[in-house]
Amino acid sequence: MNSLVVLPFLIPLITGFSALIRNRTPRRYAFVIGMTLNLLFSLWLLNGAANGDLRVSQMGGHPAPFGITLAVDTLSAIMLTITALIAFASGIFSLVTIDANRDRFSYYPLTAFLISGINFAFLTGDLFTLYVAFEIMLMASFVLLTLGGERGQIEGGIKYVTLNLISSTFFLIAAGLTYAVAGTLNMAHLVERLADQPTPGITTVLAGLFLIAFGIKAAIFPLFFWLPASYHTPPVAVTALFGGLLTKVGIYALWRVVVMIFPKDLAYLQPLILAIAALTMITGVIGAVAQTDFRRLLSFHIVSQIGYLIMGIGIGTPLAIAGAIFFTVHVILAKTTLFFVSGVVHELKGTYTLKKLGGMVKSHRGIAALFFLAAMSLAGIPPFSGFWAKLILLRAGLEEGHYVITAVALGVSLLTLYSMVKIWNEVFWKKAAEKVTDESLETHKRGAATPFELRVMIGVTAVMTAVVVLVGVVAEPLLVISQQASDGLLNPTTYVETILTPETDNIVPEGGE
Amino acid sequence: MSFVFAVTIGVLFACGVYLMLRRSLARLIIGLSLLTYGANLLIFTGGDLSRRAPPIVDAAPLEAMADPIPQALILTAIVISFGVTAFTLALGYRASQAVQTDDLDALQSTDTDETA
Predict the structure, then answer these.
(1) Which of A84, A100, A364, B98 is least surrounded by CB atoms within 10 angstroms?
(2) CA distance to A103, A343, A370, B23, per residue, from A158 (Å)
(3) Of B46, B104, B115, the CB nearest to A152
């Protein structure tokens, strides 16, 4: 049974290959079916993890430190589920927004490969396999970002590719040196071996290298400049997928590697990490306030929200990490929804430029309501999810006496609200800029979507908004499971023992390998 | 021996970084490859540099065997960097077509609000 944990990797992979079919309709069906299966299976895993299951599978039946270990603990299950949900939603969204040309040049297979890479990163219990998973994810994201070959995409692509390759190099160096120091790459084994490392200086260097490598991917200060330069260039379905998920894979890697394997060095690096968190929050939100383009504003916000997640890591108590996990789920949902709204607005008005938009609160009440709910959630107004996420983090900060970072987090929260209100004013509240809008609507590149396609777009956005609101109103289950995930991360004894003890190695003869 | 390796790695990294800081797109790509070579060599050096028996069970006593893991890691990394380099070259070619120059400073249109 446990060898089934390979499925979140295999389902999208097989979907990707199936979606290479030449004919348009079966290709799209294959993609939707694959993403649905992926979502259902992830939900099943999450259900198991909520009941305390820890599923471990040793690939090829090689026992733990020697083979490749796949493990699904609570944290992995949460991340898998949220990924599957976003992949499904943005998949449906792209069915009606991606143009025929991108569709023909394997948009759907690439998306599926991207998901398979992300899921692989969440599954693996081995540093080098994590590197490979990152590369699968990156390769797919490189092509998705530049697919279509518009000038903006190519320019953004070069920055994105360069910075991510540098990050991969750092990761590779860190993984290689970790092997040289500890003689193993299995995470569970590393936890055990590095616990009584005689030369703590070396592990601090390693933790620092991992911090840089994953920090670039997570877009922390001062390593985030690739993000606002590139995320607004591809079609909005891609932006929504990237903006929701990719940086959070970096955050997951930070949790899994830096928090779980290097806890002592994390304590040593704490002032640095808290400073980074504060600066990430501030620069991100100030950058966002200055923007005049819908998607660029949201892109800068991704950076700002990453600061809160780093703050959780910096404080490092179980409550803080639980808050960060809750925050991740919240921000992935809210951010993707906001990008969907920007896509719908673009479809209706033909532009992302805030100056040219306006008056939508009268002409499109429903969309205004969807934006309002998602934006208030992001800004952290009770009773939405952002409020609980920030409340937990702030409480963790106050309990530990980190007053500066707590104050910064509160201030940034206010600025977040301000920038959301800015979008609200520009796009929905102010009077429509009559002339300009009409012109750009006529020269609108894609040609307006059919009413049915538009309804699907709004439908997906509405469902996502409903999920965002639901997470806020019924916060308890997610909070409980976040705490469980955070405990698993900070006290990895069960994780280590389950992986390293041969009896629990699930070497079933009929296994899927 | 490891001193020679350390210097070589240092030179590779220095050259890579220097090339990446130039404004040319082609040099950026070469610089990225050099960084990867440096990383690979670093992993190699992190293993054991002395001459040892091949890691085949029963062919040699356990203590005399070489550790095959660093080589396996490097092999994987080389394959990945091969694919990535191919993609970067293609991207660089498209960029030079789109922008009509090799100058990285010309790639600024996404930093302003005019596009998008």
Answers:
(1) A100
(2) 23, 24, 34, 13
(3) B115
Supply A271's token pair. 């002032």
Min distance A21 CA to chain B CA atoms (Å):
23
Q: Which residue has the tokens 């532009």?
A: A351
Q: Which of A504, A505, A503, A495 shows the shortest CA–CA distance to A189?
A: A495
Give B71-91 pLDDT, tens digit per residue.
889 999 999 999 999 999 999
pTM above 0.90, yes or no: yes
SS (H, E, C) A380-424: CCCCCHHHHHHHHHHHHHHHCCCHHHHHHHHHHHHHHHHHHHHHH
| Interface contact A176-B84, CB threshold 8 A | no
Residue A190 structure tokens? 């590393």
Closest listed residue to residue A76, CA positions, set A495, A425, A507: A495
Chain B CB within 8 Å of residue A67 CB: no
Contact A308, A393 (CB under 8 A): yes
For residue A504, the model assigns a pLDDT of 46
Measured between beta carbons, which residues in chain A are less than 8 angstroms from residue B25? 158
| Interface check A166 vs B, CB under 8 A | yes
Give the Å distances, CA to CA, from B32 to A140, A141, A146, B15, B84.
Answer: 19, 18, 19, 10, 10
Beta-carbon count within 10 A of A10 CB? 16
| Weakly modelled stretches of chain B, pLDDT under 50 | 115-116
A353 and chain B in contact, CB less than 8 A: yes
Return the closest-CA partner of residue A261 out of A132, A126, A122: A126
Question: What is the ipTM score, two decimals?
Answer: 0.93
Q: Give, as one character, the DSSP assignment of residue A449.
A: P
Residue A374 vs residues A69, A362, A464, A470, B3: alpha-carbon distances, Å: 38, 19, 9, 11, 57
Say yes or no: B76 contacts chain A, CB-CB below 8 A. yes
Q: Which residues of B touch A143 (CB under 8 A)?
A: 87
* C-alpha span between A151 and A147 (Å, rounded): 11
State whether residue A322 is helix, strand or coil. helix
Query: Dihedral sign, CA of A180, A182, A184, A186?
Result: negative
Contact A176 B83 (CB under 8 A): no
- Spatial separation of the C-alpha atoms in residues A454 and A461, rounded to whole Å: 11
Average pLDDT of chain A to the nearest whole number: 88
- The residues that bridge with A124 in the sheet, in sequence order, are A70
C-alpha span between A365 and A370 (Å, rounded):
9
Residues from chain B contacting residue A151 (CB–CB below 8 Å): 98-99, 109, 115
A66/chain B closest Cα distance in angstroms? 10
Q: What's the 3-state SS for chain B?
A: CHHHHHHHHHHHHHHHHHHHHCCEHHHHHHHHHHHHHHHHHHHHHHCCCCCCECCCCCCCCHHHECCCHHHHHHHHHHHHHHHHHHHHHHHHHHHHHHHCCCEHHHCCHHHCCCCC
φ/ψ of A55, rounded to 5, equals -95, 125
Alpha-carbon distances, residue A236 vs A244, A420, B110 (angstroms): 12, 19, 15
pLDDT band at A508 (very low <50, low <70, confident <90, very high): very low
d(Cα A2, Cα A12) in Å, to the nearest integer?
A: 19
What is the arithmetic mean of pLDDT over A247-266? 92
| Structural tokens at position B51 | 């001459």
Q: What is the pLDDT of residue A136?
A: 94
Q: How confident is the model at residue A433, as a pLDDT?
A: 67
